[in-house]
Amino acid sequence: MKILVANLGSTSLKYRLFDFSDGRERMLARGGFERLADHAPAIESCLAELRAGGWVRDESDLAAVGFKTVMARGLNGCVRLDEAAVAAMEAFNAVAPAHNPAYVKGVRLFAKRMPKTPLIGLFETAFYQWAPEAAMRYAIPEEWHALGVRRWGFHGASHKFIAERSAELLGREDVAARARNLYVDGGKHPVRAPALRVVSCHLGGSSSIAGIRDGVAIGSSLGMSPQSGLPHNNRVGDLDAFAAPYVMRALGISLEEAERQLCQEAGLKGISGGLNDLRDLTQAAEKGNARARLALEVFVHQIRHWIGAFAVEMNGLDALVFTGGIGENQAGIREEVCRDLDLLGVALDPAANIAEGRGAERTLSAPSSRARVFVIPTNEELVVAREARRVLLKEGGPTPADLFSQPQPQHQ
Fold first, then answer.
1. Domains and their CATH numbers in the chain
2. Which of 208, 271, 292, 395 is the most exposed place for a label (fewest CB within 10 A)?
3. 3-state secondary structure the chain
4. What is the pLDDT of residues 175-217, one digit of tens each?
């Protein structure tokens, strides 16, 4: 069984091809295309590369195409992407403007190009379905809540991978099995005492922190939209609800302009005055740029804030995990995050922290550390492929040609 996973950006398409034959899971091929004006040619190029590599004869060799879909109104989990599912994604375009429109367009293009291949989406919100309601609820009128205004949490595929792998590294196969089977049994897989308490730090252009107890999320730093939580490279992060209407009135700007600034001119870029790459920010801070230094300090402060919040909720910490481009490669950020965390049993090994290990899984904690500190490179695409396979094995149903045969509703 071969499953293609397509990661869609507004101007990019990245892919990985997985094979689950003979009870094994292997990545056969990977590639990508940037600066796209149209995804359709990129889909053709992707299939051409797979044929040229001898991995497939044509699209009929693919059991499914999996997508790391972001969010949808009234829909969650891992699902077949029929027109109703895509319309539900489209209904939340305004909540995830940098993500949902690209996926909506891309899924429809794949359905047109590969009408007999099942399309399956694993929503980034899926990992948080079993988090306590109190951790995901906003204090708002019930009518707002009914519209979907709540904490959803994102980066679910990444944090789910960390939940599985950290449990394996800590010798807790019972918890790893619970995390692996989460979307099958809803976290009911039995685990032994004591509880395994992990905080996962996915740090990159978009960042989030998740608390994970016994393989199940207890909460996320991200809220209703991917613009929330930690400051991102150019997206705002957490902000008081009254800030936006105040600024709109004070500066005389439109709602659309306020949204644009919050999505494109805020975050680390807004604090620093234009820099949003951690490498550039670090270089500038070392040269005395006060705004760059402040951006880094705000970023670290928010990471530590959420680590502390989840550690309190779980009554301790067994592992702190760094993943994502920044988490895996920025030793200085890891050092600042772990500074003076002896109360949580965290002691970083300075030499291990700065040792070269790009792309490698490794332990950063000192032998005296009660809590383990890991770098674990995440594998979101593998999680998507695994869950798509589960759907195929569990379900049958019509082909995308049938599911997309009706007129497509338009959402504002």
1. 2-123+382-403 (3.30.420.40), 156-378 (3.30.420.40)
2. 395
3. CEEEEEEEECCEEEEEEEECHHHCCEEEEEEEECCCCCHHHHHHHHHHHHHHCCCCCCHHHCCEEEECCCCECCECCEEECCHHHHHHHHCCCCCCCCCHHHHHHHHHHHHHHCCCCCEEEECCCHHHCCCCHHHHCCCCCHHHHHCCCCCCCCCHHHHHHHHHHHHHHCCCHHHHHHHHCHHHHCCCCCCCCCCCEEEEEECCCCCEEEEEECCEEEEECCCCCCCCCCCCCCCCCCCCCCHHHHHHHHHCCCHHHHHHHHHHCCHHHHHHCCCCCHHHHHHHHHCCCHHHHHHHHHHHHHHHHHHHHHHHHHCCCCEEEEEHHHHHHCHHHHHHHHCCCHHHCECECHHHHHCCCCCCCEECECCCCCEEEEECCCCHHHHHHHHHHHHHHHCCCCCHHHHCCCCCCCCC
4. 999 999 999 999 999 999 999 999 999 999 999 999 999 999 9
pLDDT in tens, 348-373: 999 999 998 878 999 999 999 999 99
